[in-house]
Amino acid sequence: MTEHAGRGGFCCSSHSGTENAQAILDLAEARAKDRNVRLTPVRRRTLEILLQAHGALGAYDVLERLAVEGFGTQPPVAYRALNFLVENGMAHRIRRLNAFTACAHPAEDHRAAFLICEACDSVTEAAAGGVNAALNAAADAVGFALDRATIEAVGLCRACQGAQA
Amino acid sequence: MTEHAGRGGFCCSSHSGTENAQAILDLAEARAKDRNVRLTPVRRRTLEILLQAHGALGAYDVLERLAVEGFGTQPPVAYRALNFLVENGMAHRIRRLNAFTACAHPAEDHRAAFLICEACDSVTEAAAGGVNAALNAAADAVGFALDRATIEAVGLCRACQGAQA
DNA sequence: CCTTGACTGTTATGATATAACGTTAGATAG
DNA sequence: CTATCTAACGTTATATCATAACAGTCAAGG
């Protein structure tokens, strides 16, 4: 993985590119104010980069872009900004890809599920209400106090199913 | 993470240590025969190590033990054995911990959910039937062909809830 | 002004994972 | 039984992902 413009060429879902980007940034801004945290330039720019990427980006991909724009050049710069975004519900970490993606629905304080396409690496954020309910039930059954969860599904997105020859 | 004997001191669940280990190994053996794959010495020993560990182990932890016993000393040795076990349903990869754990119920061709305790790092394999049903529904809703999923919940196991002072 | 605390950037290093290649050993065809 | 083929093993080397620790910056409040 030495040169790629991001994992996820297509996006099968709702947050298609730049059109919603401004709205999401505004929501992030508002949320920051609510929570009394600061959406500083690096953090904001990092979120923009994720929004533009339109797919999951590795921390080093983000870093590369930040560096070009005059922000810091070393890994912690990217990791700190990304962790901030994740902690504040503005982005998600996709562990299977060692990557990050902007949250498509920052308004809801949801627990999301991700659908990762094996063919094109696109990541779709899916409604996870039912999944979380079921998970809560399973946790309750064994007396586990659930805090948060990572739900990542792997398969083929609609677009790539057609392309399967 | 330079010296530890494994992540997961306690185990809140069913596969408590060595008692079931033999049964699980037997199942693995049978499964290997079924699938026409070979449970070679390294692979078998790797599974035993996971079973003994009674919690998730990192690849390098496994490697260390294999090396001591005269198997290879380099990372691919561990990764290959672990990947084999995962691919054949004999172990699971816990991405949040960058670790692996023996499958507690190798007979069923299930998709498992994991409950990871933040306090003691124990990993419990939970029944995930309902969760998977819900996930399938969510995937269907957007036309995503789901192959497999990673479901990892973070919280406090029953034992550690009491210990919260 | 001066302290304080959050933020940024850096150096350095740690931790996880895989590519590529030669060798070994188990299976199979002759 | 032997030649051959392939899966598996072990190695070297390197890629990739992530964090610890510390120094400089800057805005807010005393």
From TrEMBL, chains A, B:
SUPFAM superfamilies per the UniProt record, alphabetical: Winged helix' DNA-binding domain (SSF46785)
Keyword field: DNA-binding, Metal-binding, Repressor, Transcription, Transcription regulation, Zinc
Entries under InterPro entries matching the protein: FUR, Fur_C, WH-like_DNA-bd_sf, WH_DNA-bd_sf
Record carries keyword DNA-binding: yes
Gene3D superfamilies documented for this protein: 3.30.1490.190, Winged helix-like DNA-binding domain superfamily/Winged helix DNA-binding domain (1.10.10.10)
Needed cofactors: Zn(2+)
Cofactor notes: Binds 1 zinc ion per subunit.
Keyword Repressor appears in the UniProt entry: yes
Any single biological process term in GO: negative regulation of DNA-templated transcription
Residues annotated to bind Zn(2+): C117, C120, C157, C160
A single GO molecular function term of this UniProt record: transcription cis-regulatory region binding
One term under GO cellular component: cytosol
Protein family membership: Belongs to the Fur family.
PANTHER family referenced in this protein's UniProt entry, alphabetically: ZINC UPTAKE REGULATION PROTEIN
Protein name: Fur family zinc uptake transcriptional regulator
Native source organism of the sequence: Roseinatronobacter thiooxidans
